[in-house]
Design a protein that fits this description.
Length: about 400
């Protein structure tokens, strides 16, 4: 009997995510579980929540990490993982026969130089937005950042604008790639303006300054002067909640604003399905900017018209007046004007609802983005000396 050709398992890719997984990082989970032609193994140093993945390997942080962090504060140079952590991680790479190491977030990779130097694998370091800000641009980090870029075979970024900023940080142009987020399968909801002028506006975000929540509340307060029975629901949690509640009371709209806290994906989609407008006025704060907000893309996929800002990678997705409305950053009056324009023009409202869904479904479909990610992996493996095998 002649046996058929031996079926080889797909190549293994190791994905390092320091905490697997923070609630706001659902896009990482979609990345891990969406791969078709690679076998993923997740490397993490902290398990958080209940997330499914074929294989997750936990390598706890060194108990002496606090000393390394203290040294960073003293010297200004980034701490590095310990020798023991490095050896355990390399052992997993060898045992799983990993062909490539993908590190999520540039500001994590800069602490993993011992692993990047010694693993012998092609390395992909992806940037997602806030990981170009803060200490990454400080003089004390410059040497480590430069070495991280040298050791990386590919540096994918969430948006073209973010890739420009990574280039300014020292990322070589030849290594920069575009790696859009992967959208889940979100059904389109037919939208019509409310017949009683009770508009339901929603924003979903971490309650941090760059999400523009102060501007959003001020814009909503102006909107209620014309549509007093409207509501604004803010889904998310974060350090600004008390300040935002105080501002809502100061603006005398606290009875029209609801803070839901963090919502599961199912609950968030339920909220989106009954809303009329998605408001997300991102703004740059101390160099911290967004790539393309995931919640905004999910709202658009479901047909929610979007009012947002010319910020980060957002204009790469939204063309003003075509599939959303764009305003200047930190301009509550402009945001209110855009909301009022949308509420007053039912034809514009229906057109933006339809076009927002069509545009993001085409650009951010799972099939398209997983194929693009896997092509980045293949190119990195082929370009690496020896084709990638852990030492």
């Amino acid at each position: 009997m002649v046996s058929g050709p031996e079926t080889r398992p797909p190549p293994c890719v190791a994905l390092f995510c320091a905490t697997f997984l923070k609630p706001e990082m659902l896009h990482v989970h979609r990345h891990v579980t969406g791969l078709k032609n690679f076998r993923p193994v997740v490397l993490t140093q902290k398990l958080e929540g209940e997330w499914s993945a074929d294989r997750v390997e936990l390598v706890p942080r060194s108990p002496w990490r606090f000393l390394a962090r203290a040294a960073e504060k003293t010297t200004g140079r980034p701490w590095q993982i310990s020798r023991g952590e490095t050896e355990r991680l390399i052992g997993i790479l060898q045992a799983t026969e990993a062909r490539l190491l993908h590190v999520f977030f540039g500001n994590v990779a800069v602490h993993l130089l011992p692993l990047l130097r010694e693993c012998g694998l092609p390395v992909v370091v992806s940037f997602h937005g806030s990981d170009v800000a803060g200490s990454m641009a400080s003089p004390g980090f410059s040497g480590a950042v430069a070495e991280m870029f040298q050791l990386a075979d590919a540096v994918p970024c969430r948006s073209e604008r973010l890739a420009e900023r990574v280039g300014q940080l020292g990322g070589p142009q030849a290594k920069l790639r575009l790696m859009r987020t992967i959208l889940p399968d979100i059904p389109f909801t037919h939208r019509t303006p409310p017949t009683d002028d009770t508009w339901r506006i929603v924003q979903a975000a971490r309650l941090v300054p760059k999400k523009g929540l102060v501007a959003a509340l001020r814009a909503f307060a102006a909107f209620t002067k014309v549509y007093p029975w409207s509501t604004f629901t803010i889904a998310g949690e974060g350090p600004l909640e008390e300040e935002l509640r105080d501002l809502a009371a100061e603006l005398e709209i606290e009875d029209r604003v609801e803070f839901t806290g963090f919502l599961s994906q199912e609950s968030l989609q339920g909220l989106f399905s009954i809303a009329h407008i998605f408001l997300h006025p991102s703004e740059t704060v101390d160099g911290d900017a967004e790539g393309v907000p995931n919640a905004m893309l999910e709202a658009m996929a479901g047909g929610l018209p979007v009012v947002t800002t010319r910020h980060g990678g957002i204009p790469e997705v939204i063309t003003d007046g075509k599939n959303g409305l764009l305003c200047a950053e930190k301009d509550p009056a402009a945001l209110a004007e855009a909301l009022l324009r949308l509420a007053a023009d039912s034809d514009l409202y229906r057109m933006l609802s339809k076009q927002s869904a069509l545009s993001v479904r085409e650009q951010f479909s799972s099939e398209r983005q997983v194929a693009a990610i896997e092509q980045i992996y293949r190119e990195a493996i082929l370009a690496h000396p020896g084709g990638g095998s852990a030492r």
